[in-house]
Amino acid sequence: MRRLHLIVVVCAALAGAGFLTGCGDGTDPEWETDDWDSWEEDQAVAATSSLRVLSWNLRHEGWSGETNYAEDAAQIWNQFGASASSPNGCDLVFLQKVMYPEAADGIAEALEALSGVTWIAEVTPAIGRSTYKEAYAVLYRTDRADVEDWWVWNDTGDKFEREPMIVKVRDVRSGADYTFINWHTIFGSTTERKAEIAQISKVFGSVQAADPTDQDVILLGDHNAPATSTWWTPLMSLTPAVGWKVNDPTTLNSSGSYASAYDHFWFQASYLTEFSSAGRDYVANTQNFVTNLSDHVPIWMKLYSTADTD
After folding, report:
1. Do residues 138 and 165 make contact, with C-beta atoms less than 8 angstroms apart?
2. Which residues have CB under 8 Å from 172's CB, separation 6+?
3. For the chain, which domains are there?
């Protein structure tokens, strides 16, 4: 009796969805083939996903003259990818050099207006040794990603000018989870930069070892040094080996010319099997960009998953 009832309910549900005709009207049920194929494709897409991640130093976002939130959102949403023909859209955004929480909220609101989906911003307190301080932020669209937890690294011994933001994220479609380290390295002197980069290997290793259920750790941000510098040897010497993605020039001088390769992604390829592709974001007019938005161009990454693999 229960089985018969279940069949009737399922039959009625499928008929209501348009996948079945003749159900419950005394005739033999018939599948609407095109609709059924479409439904199968939708289920396959739901079980797999490509998480689109962006990292961007926004040049004192929130200060006077640095509040072009609608244009920031347009760059994030409309120009994600390496070319003008790349599909629109983004799922997860990490920001450096946010000066006020309202700035991150303003970009999230502009992204909602542009994309038609819900975005949430999480912002750290202002961080820095002197009266000059910056915050980190993560923005995410709730139908694609969930920020399960975040915190500021406990900087014992004051090793960093701006200790990094640690963010645990889950792709809500596939269940894949990741831990991101959002970090803006000190510029300062050569000695100060080299010292901080040496210390970030300890942060990466500690974060990686802290959660055996999540081995997909990704360091990103503005690192004020090329990825090919020998300063990164401590990080690259971790086991499994840590490597980089994106070493294109990402900073812009006042004339709109590319200058330095400072923005990167770092991860252990043997763990982050979800990695698909990465690059420097497309910018149509670098002079306009550096005048109105930032002296750093965003970098992007795609993470493809079908399930949680760690």
Report:
1. yes
2. 142, 143, 144, 145, 146
3. 2-43 (no CATH), 49-305 (3.60.10.10)
